[in-house]
Write a structure and sequence with these properties.
Helix content: 25-40%
Number of domains: 3
Low-confidence stretches: 1-8
Largest sheet: 6 strands, mixed
Shape: elongated
Order of helices and strands: EEEEEEHHHEHHEEHE
Mean pLDDT: 82
Distance between the termini: 64 Å
């Protein structure tokens, strides 16, 4: 790695990246202490300047560094941010765990104040976007919903293409709640009626297996539903699409 070649893409402080929330996913760069070989690992950069590194480091071939006699194998020196900007080792701190909420919030509030001041002093599109993002970062830490955050950033979330139609209601009914207890389903008239009219059947899969049937309430049923009549009428009145009838197994 040539530091001079990347001078224009370096920063000495945690930047605000428009449309990107903390923690930033970063690439952590290390170099072998004896040979000119670079290793990489994933990491998370927080507002506080703290970085949690996901070990191990690996080179391009997927090999981990080898420890030397003094216990040192690599020199961890740089992180690369999502926008390609690099931060040197003395500008961030490696930590084992994410910083506490109060530290993150304090850092985020300071960043918001600085960003708003910079925009007020200099103006420009980038400073404006950073000021808006800084405010959204504070809102995110305080648990505001994602849709609100998108609004803060001026982003209109495109709705995903609907794969299914409008949502439908499926009700669940245990047969014993209607006909009381029984020993064998085949001896209950209502079960015989359900088996005849069910759109879906899941049964006879072992002695103690599942015994459940789905009724499609949009169709015309055959025969007398018996004690299930009032239940079906109530379900249709509620606008339900299906009833799943089972015996608790």
């Amino acid at each position: 790695m040539n530091p001079k070649a990347n001078e224009a893409k370096r920063t000495d402080s945690v930047p605000i990246i428009p449309r990107t929330f903390f923690p930033y996913s970063v690439k952590v760069i290390a170099t072998d202490t004896c040979y000119p070989i670079d290793f990489e690992a994933k990491g998370l950069l927080y507002e506080t300047g703290d970085v949690v590194i996901e070990y191990p480091f690996k080179d391009q071939a997927g090999n981990a560094p080898q420890l030397e006699d003094d216990g040192a194998a690599i020199d961890i020196h740089t992180i690369v941010l999502p926008n390609g900007v690099e931060m040197d080792r003395h500008d961030w701190t490696e930590v084992a765990d994410a910083p506490t909420f109060d530290r993150r919030l304090m850092a985020s509030l300071c960043m918001m104040g600085d960003a708003e001041f910079d925009y007020g002093e200099g103006g420009g599109t980038l400073l404006f976007e950073q000021a808006v993002q800084a405010k959204a970062n504070v809102c995110k830490l305080n648990g505001l919903p994602y849709a609100f955050l998108l609004g803060q950033l001026g982003i209109k979330e495109e709705g995903a293409a609907r794969v299914f139609g409008a949502p439908q209601t499926v009700l669940s009914l245990m047969m014993q709640d209607v006909v009381d207890d029984y020993d064998i389903p085949d001896q209950v008239p209502e079960w015989k009626w359900v088996e005849t009219n069910a759109a879906y059947v899941h049964s006879r899969n072992g002695k103690y297996g599942v015994w459940e049937f789905m009724l499609n309430l949009s169709v015309t049923f055959k025969g007398d539903p018996g004690r299930l009549g009032p239940v079906i009428a109530a379900a249709r009145a509620e606008g339900a699409a299906y009833i799943l009838i089972h015996q608790g197994t």
